[in-house]
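Appendix B, Record 12. Input sequence as logged:
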Amino acid sequence: MPTILAVSGSPSVGSFTHEVLGLAADGLVAAGCRVETLVVRELPAAALLGGDTGDPELRDALRRVAAADAVVVATPVYKAAYSGLLKAFLDVLPQYALRGKPVLPLASGGSMAHALALDYGLRPVLASMRPAAITDAVFVPADTAHTDPVTGARRPGPAALERLDEAVAQLTALLAAPAPRVPLTVAA
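Logged structural output:
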């Protein structure tokens, strides 16, 4: 059973981004994955901002990234960019922390006008860490969400839920695919 680390880069408690991440996690669990959640705002701020990898909580977060088979990264979009909190965490990770892992980038924002922040801001940073693959990014606009009358949770609109389901399926397919074989070169 593969282990997926779901990283919440939202600085807000009860954020829509965290709810969207929870929906992705539910889909991954339904597909037979084990999902662990890392809420970056719960890490010690001084250690995170100072890059103090000797801090036990930050060191544990880095260990969890290293141990995961895949990573889902979720962020709100502020001022046309992913969150500074997420950026601080990504900056602390080792250079090739995502090597060999498929990654699913998620974001939420006020409207579809912010959707490009994923492909032009977050994707290049994730790609620099050498993941095995980056799935299609999913942007969930808050202006199409509705509030569930029973739970009070905000739910994405149908189109966003469909994109999220497709990205979760893409991630699980990447996890199920056999590892690429590297041909051995024999010196003559």
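The first strand starts at residue 3 and ends at 8.
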